[in-house]
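Exercise 7b. C-alpha cells:
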C-alpha cells in the first residue's frame, strides 16, 4: 500500500547483499514475514527487517528479512536466482515482533 511505502521510505535504510546473504537454509516459499520473524526470534543477534527489494528492471516487492548487528542482510526466503539489486527496510525489535505475533493470533 502507499502508506506502507511512505513509512518504509521515511524510517527505512538500505541493506546490502554480500557473500553471506544467501548462505543459509531457506524457509517456506512465499512466507517471508513468517520466515524472518522465526529467524529473528530464534537468533537474538538478528534483527527483523520489513520493507522492499528491487529486481533488475526496477520491479519492487514487499518483503521481510533479517540483519546482523553489523547490518549484513540475511535472506530467509528468496533464492539467489532472484538476484535482488537493492533492499530497503525498517528494522524492528524482537519485542515488537513478539507483540505483533500475539496481536495477530487474537
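Sequence design result:
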Amino acid at each position: 500500500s502507499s502508506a506502507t511505502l511512505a513509512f518504509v521510505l521515511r524510517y527505512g535504510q538500505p541493506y546490502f547483499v554480500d557473500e553471506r546473504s544467501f548462505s543459509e537454509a531457506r524457509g517456506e516459499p512465499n512466507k517471508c514475514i513468517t520466515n524472518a520473524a522465526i529467524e529473528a526470534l530464534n537468533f537474538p543477534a538478528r534483527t527483523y527487517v520489513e520493507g522492499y527489494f528491487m529486481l533488475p528492471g526496477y520491479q519492487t516487492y514487499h518483503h521481510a528479512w533479517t540483519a546482523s548487528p553489523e547490518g549484513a542482510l540475511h535472506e530467509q526466503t528468496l533464492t539467489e536466482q532472484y538476484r535482488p539489486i537493492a533492499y530497503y527496510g525498517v528494522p524492528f525489535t524482537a519485542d515488537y515482533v513478539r507483540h505483533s505475533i500475539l496481536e495477530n493470533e487474537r
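Instructor comment: Residues 94-105 form the longest helix (12 residues). The longest strand covers residues 47-54.
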